[in-house]
Amino acid sequence: xxxxxKQFTTYLKDYMKKLIYIEHGFRxxxxxxxxxxxxxxxxxxxxxxxxxxxxxxxxxRATAVTQRTQxxxxxxxxxxxxxxxxxPINVIxxxxxxxxxxxxxxxxxxxxxxYNERDxxxxxxxxxxxxxxxxxxxxWGIMNSAYEQLKKVFY
Length: 155
Prior knowledge:
transmembrane helix, mitochondrion inner membrane, 2 domains, repeat, transport
């Protein structure tokens, strides 16, 4: 066994470094990078465009609490929507990253694999989207609220 959590953490880091970097090479650390870029680039751009649109169209609230609540809800809804739209790309990324070693498959190959594994139905590619939507709702709501507060501090 391990004497403490720190010893275990050190062992785990060393083991993972050996397993991934040494045995499979530097490129293994970047497996799934392309779908991450395809997901994060457009989705972040969409978020900020939609967030600015919501900020312009929604009325300014009288109290700080109602304004923060509105900022949270607007960010949460926009984030949950965008995260759901881009969910299949996230599924592709997870599929690509779940394979350790060997050739890096393209996004198209990974999508075909997911599609075939999920009974060849596009609807099944979205399995798990409700949990993802719930996670995105809270995380994007918090991020949008924090962003609005930081804007006031720095601008």
